[in-house]
From TrEMBL:
Belongs to the helicase family. UvrD subfamily. ATP binds at A52, G53, A54, G55, T56, G57, K58, T59. Residues 1-23, 584-631 are annotated as: Disordered. Residues 606-623 have a biased composition (Gly residues). Keywords: ATP-binding, Helicase, Hydrolase, Isomerase, Nucleotide-binding. Residues 662-742 form the HRDC domain. The lineage of its organism: Bacteria, Bacillati, Actinomycetota, Actinomycetes, Kitasatosporales. This is DNA 3'-5' helicase. It is an enzyme of class 5 (isomerase). InterPro entries: DExx_box_DNA_helicase_dom_sf (IPR013986), DNA_helicase_UvrD-like_C (IPR014017), DNA_helicase_UvrD/REP (IPR000212), HRDC-like_sf (IPR010997), HRDC_dom (IPR002121), HRDC_dom_sf (IPR044876), P-loop_NTPase (IPR027417), UvrD-like_ATP-bd (IPR014016). Pfam families: HRDC, UvrD-helicase, UvrD_C. PANTHER family: ATP-DEPENDENT DNA HELICASE UVRD2 (PTHR11070:SF69), UVRD / RECB / PCRA DNA HELICASE FAMILY MEMBER (PTHR11070). It catalyses: ATP + H2O = ADP + phosphate + H(+); Couples ATP hydrolysis with the unwinding of duplex DNA by translocating in the 3'-5' direction.
Length: 747
């Protein structure tokens, strides 16, 4: 690995505060830039291509480029249009430009810039006002499907809408959709001919009602500029210099609009990284970035490889991951060079099963919190949203606040709520001997998992996952998680029925229901793009999940590798990578770690049977790669009443079977609940972060008299004894708690 440049040579200068004075002159704008960033700032003429790796300060480089040009009198602010892909990114760019004294520059998304031009030129080009934008295109797609006599559930509707959006950004008309989808290797949620008919019907409905959608904004802007040379000339007279951020995510339609804005000029600066192309399913393609030098032979090409975000250890792993990549994007990969001091080695952890992986991750997060890392600076990243439930529960049990990004909480997802209602109805029907509403059937003479499968099959669950990705797959994953939960529950309680499972679901949902708080981020890898944390845990890294099972072509596999690369490069200092050998405790341990880790994790061989991974960060330090101890099977926990082996997490916490006689002191339990509510309000946290319901039940049953007795209860531990032990023991002794909020608010 290339040695890191001493960080004191080019210190990373944070963005100035909102009220800071702008730089005194153009030369001051260049202060604090490293040599490559300065080269970007000074490259103000002709086509410029900036290949910027993760964490290399690309936004800093391009905003300083614009600001330097404006402050030096080379660029007029109103003549510059900077475009990116999200309103958040555009807003950040505008803020930085204002801070640098270049506030008149337009920084917008492609859609925002196109809509602004349409609104201005529509009366002259077409007459009247721009048609109204459709607020919810899904409703129109549903109506078009109904006219075609095609029934779509909510998730299929979302996926079909996604196919229509993909068709429009790739400039595919309805009749060409089946061929275009097959050529692109897409896996449509329904028959391609059906989608083509719905697409055509959707376009007809829009015309009849005089409305347009988001993609039409780009299409109409392209149409106006193509058909009206006078308008195109006026736009080109206004905007003479263009900057495009995240250029690897440009769609063919966006590239067409950019070409029309440019005309025959070449005052264009693009910034991107082909190794971060992870949205090809939406029509994004890195081809425009990779072909830039071919289309602009005289282009200035600048590479930003100094990584200011991550430690040398994290960067070494990221570089190693891409070193195994194949394909066109891999040929243009950037080898990053960390500018940060050395940090801890990435930790690879193998667990016996998924619950153990979630518990182990929560335990390591707890250790980081205790060492001073803020919860908001920690993230758990997974491949699909259905993986979140285990981590929600594990963090809740560990008293760690969390927030979900890009997805609802598991028990708040529409399909999970609907499944809960169906299971409740089936349980009631079993009890009274009637047919449940909604067409769901669950024979009460079958075993519990069979009953659950029968109910959920009416809402999309199948023994095998559906082909492709998208909402249908996400829905299936959520329902499959419920089926697995039923299987685990039935193993722990062979005599349990549907009513018992519904009660368990209610308790789980109640334990996790809480307002969003400042906490550990749970997010999918796609939702994590553009973000960063001090500590990142990449979980579930097994074959079939990373890469995902429906990634079959070489191109799809390589995009999965890039997705993992994006996850790795989100970490500043701490990085954990983990996988489980089995799904559930005691299950068959046939899983294998992701192929992408071959040659990187300790003891593994490189692809092609090469030598095992070399330990050490590769930056001059001979530190062995830290490896979490392999977790074997956990010692059996037995019911303290009947002696049966326990497997359910809730029963393990109580140390007894759910249906075994309870020694619960109900009055104590109610006092504990009231005390917990008061403490949670004082701390500004959800109640489960103090103690979960199951832990309170265990305390009320055990009635501990000493701190060691309290600490032995699952879900308590030394940290919570220190924070809450005096109060809890006082309550157990029938006394009033006497904590001092001023001195005991820290956890």
């Amino acid at each position: 690995m290339t040695a890191a440049t001493p960080p004191t040579l080019f210190p990373r200068v944070s963005a100035p505060s909102e009220y800071a004075e702008p730089p005194r002159d153009a030369d001051a704008v260049l202060e604090g830039l490293d040599p490559e960033q300065r080269e970007v700032a000074l490259a103000l003429h002709g086509p410029v291509c900036v290949l910027a790796g993760a964490g290399t300060g690309k936004t800093r480089a391009i905003t300083h480029r614009i600001a330097y040009g404006v402050r030096a009198g080379i660029l007029q602010p109103a003549s510059v249009l900077a475009v990116t892909f999200t309103n958040r990114a555009a807003g950040e760019m505008r803020g930085r430009l204002r801070q640098l004294g270049a506030g008149g520059v337009q920084a917008r998304t492609f859609h925002s810039a196109a809509l602004r031009q349409l609104q201005y030129f529509w009366p002259r080009a077409i007459g009247g006002e721009v048609p109204r934008l459709v607020e919810r295109k899904v409703q129109l797609v549903a109506e078009a499907a109904a006219r075609c006599r095609v029934r779509l559930d909510r998730n299929e509707l979302r996926d079909v809408t996604g196919e229509i959006e993909w068709s429009k950004v790739t400039q595919t008309v309805p009749e060409e959709y089946p061929v275009a989808a097959a050529r692109a290797g897409r896996q449509p949620p329904r028959d391609a001919a059906e989608i083509a008919r719905i697409y055509a019907g959707y376009e007809e409905l829009k015309r009849d009602r005089g409305v347009i959608d988001f993609e039409d904004v780009l299409l109409l802007a392209v149409g106006v500029l193509q058909d009206r040379a006078d308008i195109a000339d006026q736009v080109r007279a206004q905007y003479q210099h263009f900057v495009v951020d995240e250029y690897q995510d440009v769609s063919p339609l966006q590239q067409r609009l950019l070409d029309l804005w440019l005309g025959d000029r070449d005052s264009l600066c693009v910034v991107g990284d082909a190794s971060q192309t992870i949205y090809s399913f939406t029509g994004a393609t890195p081809d425009h970035l990779l072909d830039f030098r071919a289309r602009h032979p005289g282009a200035t090409v600048i590479r930003l490889i100094r990584d200011y975000r991550s430690t040398p250890q994290v960067v070494h792993l990221a570089n190693g991951l891409l070193a195994q990549a194949r394909g066109r994007a891999a040929e243009h990969r950037l080898e990053l060079v960390s500018q940060r001091p050395a940090g801890p080695e990435p930790v690879y952890a193998e667990y016996a099963d998924e619950p153990a992986e979630a518990e182990g991750t929560a335990r390591r997060i707890r250790e980081l919190l205790d060492s001073g890392v803020r919860a908001a600076e920690i993230a758990v990243l997974y491949r699909v949203n259905a993986q979140s439930e285990l981590y929600e529960q594990a963090l809740a049990d560990a008293g760690v606040p969390y927030q979900l990004r890009g997805a609802e909480r598991f028990f708040e997802r529409p399909e999970v709520r609907e499944a809960g209602l169906l299971l409740r109805g089936a349980a009631l029907a079993n009890r009274v001997g009637t047919q449940p509403a909604g067409g769901a059937t669950a024979a009460d003479d079958g075993d519990l998992p069979s009953q659950v499968r029968a109910v959920l099959s009416s809402r999309g669950w199948t023994p095998e996952p559906p082909a492709g990705s998208g909402a249908v797959r996400d829905r299936w994953e959520s329902l499959a998680a419920l089926v697995r939960l039923a299987e685990d529950f039935a193993r722990a309680r062979p005599d349990a029925g549907l009513a018992d499972l519904v009660a368990e679901l209610d308790e789980r949902a109640a334990a996790q229901h809480a307002p969003t708080v400042e906490g550990v981020t749970l997010a999918s890898l796609h939702a994590a793009k553009g973000l960063e944390w001090d500590a990142v845990f990449l979980v579930g890294l097994t074959e079939g999940m990373m890469p995902i099972t429906y990634a079959r072509t070489d191109e799809q596999i390589e995009e999965e590798r890039r997705l993992l690369y994006v996850g790795v490069t989100r970490a500043r200092r701490h990085l954990g990578l983990s996988w489980a050998l089995a799904r559930s405790p005691g299950g068959r341990t046939g899983r294998r770690p992701s192929r992408f880790l071959n040659g990187l994790r300790p003891g593994s061989s490189a692809p092609g049977g090469g030598r095992p991974a070399v330990t050490g960060a590769g930056h001059g330090a001979g530190v062995e790669r830290g490896t979490a101890p392999r977790r074997g099977r956990r010692a059996p926990v037995r019911c303290r009443v009947c002696g049966r082996t326990l497997t359910d997490a809730g029963e393990i916490k109580l140390m007894r079977c759910e249906d075994c006689p309870s020694e619960l002191d109900e009055a104590l339990y109610e006092r504990l609940r009231e005390w917990r509510a008061d403490r949670a309000r004082e701390l500004g946290q959800p109640a489960y972060c103090v103690f979960t319901d199951k832990t309170l039940l265990a305390i009320a049953e055990a009635v501990p008299g000493t701190e060691p007795e309290l600490a032995r209860i699952s879900g308590v531990g030394r940290r919570k004894v220190a924070a809450y032990g005096a109060d809890v023991l006082a309550l157990c002794a029938g006394e009033e708690p006497g904590h001092d909020p001023e001195n005991s608010s820290r956890k």
